[in-house]
């Protein structure tokens, strides 16, 4: 990718993030976030959730991969922001679920590209106002 090739409106290659209940458990261990909503359907439902949900930080971090894959060097990401707008429920089966991530360049100025990200799960937007800034190589 050459900086001169980057312009407003460019769409990054889409990214599908597949995860299973086992992935949620492994992330809980890595992050030391053992909140029962991430492993117990009973506890998640008691709080009004549809069942076990993946950690919001997993969704946010994994979604950024659309940008890091595109730019080729994670160190070029200078900022990233997102709001959590809906939970990602993960069924207790062998199939799991998928979060679809899309992104496009919304601004380019002074060697920095601003990327807007959209992440959807089962027809619901799961990240809002998601933006990353990337220093162009």
TrEMBL record:
Signal sequence range: none
Chain ranges of the MaoC-like domain: 16-112
InterPro entries: Fatty_acid_synthase, HotDog_dom_sf, MaoC-like_dom
Classification via Pfam families: MaoC_dehydratas
Family of the protein in this entry: Belongs to the enoyl-CoA hydratase/isomerase family.
Name used for this protein in its record: Acyl dehydratase
The organism of origin for this protein: Brooklawnia cerclae
């Amino acid at each position: 990718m050459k900086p001169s090739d980057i312009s407003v409106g460019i769409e990054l290659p889409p990214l599908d993030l597949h995860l299973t209940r086992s992935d949620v458990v492994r992330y809980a261990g890595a992050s030391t976030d053992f909140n029962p909503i991430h492993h117990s359907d009973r506890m998640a439902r008691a709080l009004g959730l549809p069942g076990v949900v993946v950690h919001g930080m997993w969704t946010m971090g994994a979604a950024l991969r659309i940008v890091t894959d595109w730019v080729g060097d994670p160190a070029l990401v200078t900022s990233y922001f997102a709001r959590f707008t809906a939970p990602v429920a993960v069924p207790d089966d062998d199939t799991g679920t998928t979060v679809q991530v899309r992104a496009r360049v919304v601004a380019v100025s002074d060697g920095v590209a601003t990327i807007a990200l959209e992440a959807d799960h089962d027809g619901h937007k799961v990240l809002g106002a998601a933006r990353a800034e990337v220093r162009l190589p």
